[in-house]
Amino acid sequence: MLKGKSILLGVTGSVAAYKTIELIRLIKKEEASVRVIMTEASQRFMTPLSAEIASGDHVYRDMFDPPLSHISLPATADLLVVAPATANIIGKYANGIADDMLSTAMMAFQGKVIIAPAMNRRMYESPQVQKNLRYLESLGVTFAGPDKGVLACGEEGIGRMAGIDSIMDKIRSALTEQDLEGEQILVTAGPTREYIDPIRYVSNRSSGKMGYAIAAVAKRRGAEVTLITGPSALTPPEGVEVIKVETAAEMHQAVMDNFPMSTIFVMSAAVSDFSPVKTECAKIEKPDNFTLHLRKTSDILEEAGRLKKRPYTVGFSAETGFRLDRAKKKLTAKNMDMMVFNDVTKEGSGFDKDTNEVVILNRDKSGNIVEMPLPLMSKENVAAMIFDRISMQRERPDNE
Ligand SMILES: Cc1cc2nc3c(=O)[nH]c(=O)nc-3n(C[C@H](O)[C@H](O)[C@H](O)COP(=O)(O)O)c2cc1C
User: Fold this and answer.
1) How far is the centre of ligand 1, averaged over its atoms, from the C-alpha of 43 (Å)?
2) Which residue out of 86, 120, 123 has the highest number of ligand 1 atoms within 8 Å of its CB and is therefore the one to mutate?
3) What pLDDT is attached to residue 318?
4) What confidence tier does 150 reach under pLDDT thresholds 50, 70, 90?
């Protein structure tokens, strides 16, 4: 996602400095280059050698080595990230102080800046730091964290550096075109549970990974996102409104409540197709034989497709085998704008995997179904391709 981008990373004198190695590793994993500047104090917490090995590049520490690097480095960077950022560097940046390699490079940088503060709770809450943070925010600086929790000094409270995943998410957003700004995107994810009695339920293998990836990508591209999720072990993406549901009926209600405000609706949840006719109030005794009577749950997509005024609606068709015919039938029968077919039995695809291999189906202006087969890729990349396709179809409905 960060391929080809150049990130300038400042590291300052906080106990959290050691975590930066993982940040460098993740940035590099996405094929971006990272140039590291370390302050003198930060070298007491992390060795420049570790940063050098992780980044595969020289680590800059001295304004005079090589001379003018404090000007040349920021001139070629797409983004400046300071993680961890001490109270000191925040104060210097807010007040125009440039007295070492990092603070001068920060002053010379003209692009987007992300700062991940890390410090003791009382330092963070001090009026001086708060005033500096407010001022930097007014200049357009983005902050990652800080988080609440147990601090390095043993105290509890706000001041922990944001998690590396959360900083990575801010980096991706900052370097991603905000082409979904103004969109209100409703995404469903995960399975539902249909209770037989208070202990047992009927469900399916959905993990929610595809839907959570869709929500993350939509948010990163500037959309307002509401994620309706069935039970899932995943952490929802930051900045997304989350509605937790359990049953198909609850999912149905939540979708209908949020439908009118949405411009795009992506139904990637695996809603149970069947629900027990009767849910017992108490645990059913263990019989020798047991017949469970099921009835069909309401088909949320079908209902959505019947509505005259509806958002651009995307359905998912998970099949066992290459049953593209079934997905095409659903696209037409349910009056969807787009259907995403995936064969859950295929290697690397389907439940609980981080990757997926899909065929995107939509209709051209004349109503003919257009197929867009995609190779195996990460679920985030599948999500990106779905939104690219929607944008393209809206711009040129007669594409292909
Ligand atoms: C053990 C130790 C831990 C520290 N942790 C932090 C910290 O988490 N956040 C912070 O703002 N300052 C912290 N400091 C203070 C900074 O290291 C100090 O203000 C230093 O001048 C920062 O320099 P720099 O911003 O150039 O890296 C710590 C100091 C020590 C001795």
Assistant:
1) 11
2) 86
3) 83
4) confident
Per DSSP bridges, beta strands 224-229 and 241-244 are: parallel
How far from 216 is each of 180, 226, 265, 379, CA to CA, in Å?
12, 11, 14, 11
Residue where the block lists tokens 């990637």:
268
Shared domain check, 128 and 250: no
For ligand 1, atom 30: residue with the closest CA: 14
CATH code, domain with 74: 3.40.50.1950
Examine the domain organization and report whether 71 and 193 are in the same domain: no
- What residues does ligand 1 touch, defined as CB less than 6 Å away? 12-15, 39, 41-42, 86-89, 118-119, 123
Task: Indicate which residue's Cα is closest to atom 16 of ligand 1.
Answer: 13
| Residue owning the nearest CA to atom 17 of ligand 1 | 13
CA 132, 134, 137, 143 torsion-angle sign: positive
Residue 125 domain boundaries: 6-174
Same domain, 376 and 262: yes
CA-to-CA distance for 36 and 42, rounded, in angstroms?
12
Calculate how far, in angstroms, residue 102's C-alpha sits from the geometric centre of ligand 1.
15
pTM score above 0.85: no
At which of 133, 154, 174 does a domain end?
Answer: 174
The answer to whether residue 40 is domain-embedded is yes
